[in-house]
């Protein structure tokens, strides 16, 4: 084992060369990290990263149109966007939905505008 590592409870070892190395032992609570991992996604409109719970997932519906996946559990590929009209406008202008969802041909982002604007106003 590396002498540079920090030995945690239960015989686990976080070596500096092999991965995460804490700056101090205060970052650990026993053998668990104090900070929980928060999944991040990238907005297809502004390309900014945000926690998953702050973005809206858009998927291709059965009729090949776009729909907002309010539960973020629909099967298949999804595209994430801030619930903001500016991000939606940028995504439509850059044709980001077709690229992110791997759709051949044009993709009408206007079909989800009302849902995204509603989410932007009411959260």
Describe this structure in words.
By secondary structure, the protein is of the alpha+beta class. The protein contains three helices and nine strands, in the order βββββββββααα. It has helices at 85-93, 96-101, 113-122, and strands spanning 6-7, 13-14, 28-29, 32-33, 40-42, 49-51, 56-60, 66-69, 79-81. The strands form four sheets. The protein has a three-stranded antiparallel β-sheet. Strands 1-2 form a two-stranded antiparallel sheet. The protein is globular. Mean pLDDT is 79; it is low at 5-22 and 24-28.
| Classification by helices and strands | alpha+beta
- Report the order of strands and helices: EEEEEEEEEHHH
Widest β-sheet, arrangement of strands:
8-7-9
Poorly predicted spans: 5-22, 24-28
Distance between the termini: 50 Å
Radius of gyration: 20 Å
Summarize the biggest pleated sheet.
3 strands, antiparallel
Helix content: 10-25%
Oligomerization state of this entry?
single chain
SS field, number of helical segments: 3
Number of strands: 9
Chain-averaged pLDDT: 79
Shape: globular
Approximate strand percentage = 15-25%
Blueprint (SSEs and pairs):
Layout: E1 6-7, E2 13-14, E3 28-29, E4 32-33, E5 40-42, E6 49-51, E7 56-60, E8 66-69, E9 79-81, H1 85-93, H2 96-101, H3 113-122
Antiparallel strand pairs: 1-2, 3-4, 5-6, 7-8, 7-9
